[in-house]
Write a structure and sequence with these properties.
Blueprint lengths: L4 E3 L3 H11 L5 H19 L5 E7 L4 E7 L5 E5 L3 H11 L4 E9 L6 E7 L8 E5 L2 E2 L3 H12 L4 E5 L2 E2 L1 H10 L5 E3 L1 E2 L2 E2 L5 E2 L5 H6 L3
Parallel strand pairs: 1-11, 4-5, 4-7, 7-9, 8-10, 9-11, 10-12
Antiparallel strand pairs: 2-3, 5-6, 13-14
Helix pairs in contact: 1-2, 2-3
This protein binds uracil.
Uracil binds next to helix 6.
Length: about 210
């Protein structure tokens, strides 16, 4: 992928995202919609996966038909909201390996601190797709990508549902080599770090914790 930011402009994605933004959408529907959009965005983020061919025999004749080549991609969920998006990606890449990154914000330094990190082996030889629905300040996304690079990953892409210009800018400064795919680029962050107009707290809405 060459573009740093791709906003997937597709009627199905746009319609489902509108349903997710609606504050009246219940938890169960929110989760289903996130999973469905995750699947649709994966179509875009995997567009440049390497291919080779395999000889197959159709009922009519033999042919060299395209197949994916190389190691299975690694999906890395940024906890906890990443898990909701992860499900849709796994629906369409069921052979993917899966990792998890847990970060919290230190109240004094405001810096992200790692509390969990478990990723597949051979990250250097895989496409690594980091998933987190909300790219807000970009601090945790940038810190997660730092950790993935330390673990050897070099082909990293970032998949999110909604992005704020602040988060996109932060990622472009910290990781210009990491393309971002999102369903929408919203207006700005509010004083509490929420994306506006956004959809609220994605974790709370998908897990029903508020
Ligand atoms: N995280 C969320 O869940 N929502 C936002 O708007 C920003 C960050």
């Amino acid at each position: 992928m060459t573009r740093h930011l791709t906003v997937v402009d597709h009627p199905l994605v746009a319609h489902k995202l509108t349903e997710m933004r609606d504050r009246g959408t219940p938890t169960q529907a929110f989760r289903r919609l996130l999973r469905e959009i995750g699947l649709l965005l994966t179509y875009e983020i995997t567009r440049t996966l390497p291919m080779s061919t395999r000889r197959v025999e159709t009922p009519l004749r033999e042919m060299d038909a395209p197949v994916l080549t190389g190691r299975d991609p690694a999906l890395v969920s940024i906890l906890r909201a990443g898990n909701g998006l992860l499900d849709g990606v796994l629906d369409i890449i069921p052979s993917a390996r899966v990792g998890f990154v847990g970060l919290y914000r230190d109240e004094e330094t405001l810096e992200p601190v790692r509390y969990y990190f478990k990723v597949p082996e051979n990250l250097d030889d895989r496409l690594v797709i980091a998933v987190d629905p909300m790219l807000a300040t970009g601090n945790s996304a940038a810190a997660a990508v730092d950790l993935l690079k330390e673990a050897g990953a070099s082909d990293i892409r970032f998949l999110c549902l909604l992005a704020a210009p602040e988060g996109v800018g932060r990622m472009k400064d910290a990781h210009p080599d990491v393309p971002i795919v999102t369903a929408a680029l919203d207006e700005h962050l509010d004083g509490n770090g929420y994306i506006v107009p956004g959809l609220g707290d994605a974790g709370d809405r998908m897990f029903g914790t508020k």
